[in-house]
Amino acid sequence: MGRDESRPSGSELTRVLRERLGSEWLEDAGPEYAVGPARPETLAKPRSLEEVRELVAVCRSLGLALVPWGSGTHQHVGNAPSRLDVVLSTRDLSGIVDHDPADLTVTVRAGTTLAELASMLRPSGQWLPLDPPAPDRVTVGGMIAADLNGGLRFSHGRVRDWVLGLTFVDGVGRVVRGGGRVVKNVAGYDIPKLLVGSYGSLGPVVEATFQVRPLPACDRTFGVSAPSLEDAFRYATDIFDGPCSPLALDVLDAGAAAGLGLGKDPFVVVRLGGETREVEMQRDGMASFLRGLAPLEPAQCAALRDFTLRGPGSWGARFAVSPRELVHVALRAEEEASRFGLPLYLRVHFGTGVGFVRLSAESSKEVEAALGYLRWLRFLCRRFGGFCVYEQLPADCKALVDPWGPLDATLELMRGVKAALDPRRIFNPGRYCGGL
Amino acid sequence: MQPRSLIGSLRRIVGDRHVLVDPMELRVYECDGYTLEKSPPEIVVLPGSTEEVRAVVELLFREGIPFVPRGAGTGLSGGALPRGASVVLCTSRMTRILDVDPKGRRVVVEAGVVNSWVSRAAAPYGLFYAPDPSSQPACTIGGNIAENSGGPHTLKYGVTTNHVLGVELVLPSGEVVWLGGAAEETLGYDLLGLVVGSEGTFGIVTKAVLKLSKLPQETATLLAVFSSVDDATRAVSGIVASGIVPAALELMDRKIIDAVEAAYGFGFPTDAGAVLIVELDGRPEGVSAQLERTLAVCRTQGARELRVARDEKEREALWKSRKRAFGAVGRLAPNYCTQDGVVPRTRLSEILRFVEEVGRRHGIEIGNVFHAGDGNIHPILLYDERRPEEVEKVRAAGREILEACIAMGGSITGEHGIGVEKMEELRLLFSEDDLAVQRELRRVFDPLERSNPGKIFAMPGGCVETRRATRLGACKLGA
Ligand SMILES: Cc1cc2nc3c(=O)[nH]c(=O)nc-3n(C[C@@H](O)C(O)[C@H](O)COP(=O)(O)OP(=O)(O)OC[C@H]3O[C@@H](n4cnc5c(N)ncnc54)[C@H](O)[C@@H]3O)c2cc1C
Ligand SMILES: Cc1cc2nc3c(=O)[nH]c(=O)nc-3n(C[C@H](O)[C@H](O)[C@H](O)COP(=O)(O)OP(=O)(O)OC[C@H]3O[C@@H](n4cnc5c(N)ncnc54)[C@H](O)[C@@H]3O)c2cc1C
Fold it and tell me: From CA A184, how far away is CA A194, in angstroms rounded?
């Protein structure tokens, strides 16, 4: 929703920016930092909260648009920003600030990757029980901003459930702290929630505190093929209603299973964790009614985790509906894809109502079909109280369909939030839903 | 509008019986569970549906009259105190459970539904609603959402915000919006996350979609008796450090044990320094392994006695003792004030020593019953409201305790909210900029600060000003 704000040419302002901030942590941005048609001139790598604040303050006074950047893995999501002058890389804002194992909390800087965080927690027998794709690249800030979740949400909830507090710089140039560093806290409004899933549109997150948990003594993933997608859902329902307490419970259609090397039939994945005996008993219990239940290889687990980024197909969409309707929506989605003549790859987090579809579409006829299919899928999800976001679209298709989809009466409130925190629209302008 | 014609208009919306103006009836609403301050409202309105709430709020908006949302009035920070406004909107008639969806593990309720009714409605399906404040037989879901309430079991299961999926909110302008819903995510900013814990300052919640959890297969509840509070807190750290996340981990000190014993006679050893109630739940194999480890940790930390509840009856008795502890305290003094600070778990024994010292210094009796596993302390300060000097001492001691929590990297409230009680301390916890951002966000929902004014944020110029300006008599010029 590119609102074209008229202003002087970028280069002159860039010169002023570098004059004011020096050149120690500013450089020319390469083409890899383009987001759609928007090409930034400057790459900034601030090393401290204070430098982030200075950068934002100067950009604000000059009217330069700024995009926070973790490792760039999810920069494809959403509209292309209407303007983009400066990339704020969090690469030099990394590392643990504070971790006292006995408190079960950790404070970490935004540019830390999830893999780094995990390796720092592991020696104390702890983890942050979230499993978004590509932990070797995804940063803590990117995970918060893009609200990246994985199968563990079945048992452990989402990013919002684990962030206790955070520090960010808003578009007025204020350093803002929300929440705190203790596991229970209701002092003031829950600002961290607002930043989770804000796609960098409210300001760069510089530091965050998470609650962490003891690592399960035993953590194993099993899978089983099913003759049909309906059967796969029946298996998942039996597990869901039965005595097991899985960490994650996913259903894949035949396309996704094949794409991940898990056979050619629909597939159910169950991740179990806890005391060793607990895991064994649950596995035995399931094996008694799920013939063929077998452990997954670590590589298969990783491929599943990275499905939304590296799965088969080049188009991707995420949807959420009431869990009561999930099976119905998934079955319809599968059925309809064949009517559109499209190969579909479907993964759902059972019990949460959240799913992902991926598609391949190359020829112009296929592209046409894919767009039609995604429009239909959004319509279906909206009918069941949900939504559907097209996360991966070819750039030239973003003009044809809204990657986010329509917002209801809450758009006015969201505009108010954006206006309060970023009145001059310097962060990722136009990127977020509703053109925020 | 004159008060009399306002009352007439309100009666036309909700019915004659549901607008209270008789001073005797209004006294019930002069405070909540925080009794250090009282201020009776002039009108209490009891709407019976979202539509009635909408119409009432819209009328008040047009007339320029602020209001205070109220559930059961069990709040402990003065959130429902009619201080900045003289009209109270109470949800006590909005008590329908609208939908139970066992398959999707969701329930849709009206805001006035009492917390414990939700678990009761879910129980036939093997499900329950996890947030369980000790006040659960009385407090409402609307109040829980406003305060982001916790309870003993939030250690493992999380607080209210982790279990609310959607709310229907009547904005202070009278507009009705849904934030979230049955789906686990929504498009756009997490406004729902912001509303939970906003203490009624964003409008009135009229309905909510809540998440239900599966009842654990096995539960083990343990009473561990220690000679001193220090030993008990060391056991708390030991249990957490051993890689166990108990469902609940609660501590009661000597004063509370005495009160509970005197009131109910559960059979606690009255010479104990402190007891822990530890609950473990999950799969049977996991629970038995964790119970072994928990018992071992308690022994190492010098537990004098370990009692594992043998059946549901014994388990219930233990929980009754914990959840009725506040009630029992009522026998010790005419009044009490509960603090709600939080410290990192590793600083528990330090803060408890400090609490003891503060009590000694001010000559106030203080008992402790609290969510030890979360580091969420609840010192209960006993006093007599007829003695002004005691009231002052209680306020001063409370402030010192909260300042100590801040100094230890903690918070001034873990579950009871800021209300009117901790507005000053909030300024110690956050910078001017932090608070400015919070106020700006409030104005996104409530630009004229009509919903629960004078709460959370200390008003420049003091609250006396606010109170006077909002008396109804002064409103005839309004709008
Ligand atoms: C097609 C494709 C293929 C990929 N393949 C691979 C692969 O094979 N292997 C692999 O490891 N990874 C791959 N990735 C990358 C991906 O892994 C993401 O990893 C990552 O998810 C997002 O985190 P990030 O730190 O990169 O955030 P970014 O993508 O940089 O940012 C995501 C959003 O968050 C905002 N943001 C980022 N940081 C902050 C902050 N601190 N504060 C506020 N807002 C912030 C941004 O402005 C943006 O809106 C691929 C990505 C794509 C698009
Ligand atoms: C004995 C006792 C034990 C307690 N134990 C706990 C505990 O373990 N954990 C815990 O967290 N709390 C506890 N509390 C505190 C209290 O019960 C909770 O804060 C509870 O959530 C308040 O609910 P209520 O319905 O009584 O709300 P009220 O006291 O009526 O109101 C509380 C706040 O919520 C607002 N509000 C109420 N309804 C709405 C609505 N529909 N929409 C918008 N705003 C609304 C009010 O304006 C006010 O600011 C305890 C209190 C007592 C007296």
Answer: 18
